[in-house]
Amino acid sequence: MPAPIPLTLPGVEEYADACTTPDSEDLLDLARLTTAEVDRPHMMVGPVEARFLQFLLTALRPARILEIGTYTGYSALSMAQVLPADAHITTCELNEDFAAIAAKHFAASPHADKITLEVGPALDTIARLSGKFDFILLDADQPHFDHYLEPLTALLSDNGILAADNTLWSGSVLDESDHRPGADGIRRFNRAVAAHPGLVSVLLTVRDGLMLIRRK
């Protein structure tokens, strides 16, 4: 994904960060490490989006969560913090280096038992998953986002929610002449959701765009 271009007035995102309850120390440590030492740190969800996901999960009280795009594990650990002991996250990561960092931090966390890390192509993992999920976070492989819509909505429980990140793609979705793979993939996904007769959606202007989707 491209480095994010601010979609709000200068200072607004920083102000929102300052007015949001800060992360726990272990999440702050992981965020610092990711920013300082890991390739493409802008792929990590920001603190405001992480806190929003925590609010959402606290209200939904999901038993099973699926995440596509683990990166270094920040979002999975953030979600795990607000889940009861009997809830579980399955998180998928293609990049073995990122997965190794995430696995290390999962193992050191008191929430390790709530998380299963699957390494490999996410669509392959999705194809062999059974049962329904109450919450799904799609945050990877943006050039092929539209390939995930039907497989993931098929895995949603009756009241489940699919959250798709980066659905504004730094504003590139507005420029129809921008045919970079990520921009095209996100536009195809957004159009498919909007045109789908069986889905209800809302696109929130949180950070780089977060679309919430459920079945009618």
TrEMBL record:
Keywords: Methyltransferase, S-adenosyl-L-methionine, Transferase. It comes from the Bacteria. PANTHER family: CAFFEOYL-COA O-METHYLTRANSFERASE 3-RELATED, O-METHYLTRANSFERASE-RELATED. InterPro entries: Cation-dep_OMT, SAM-dependent_MTases_sf, SAM_O-MeTrfase. The keyword Metal-binding does not apply. This is Methyltransferase. One of its GO terms (molecular function) is S-adenosylmethionine-dependent methyltransferase activity. Coiled coil: none annotated. One of its GO terms (biological process) is methylation.
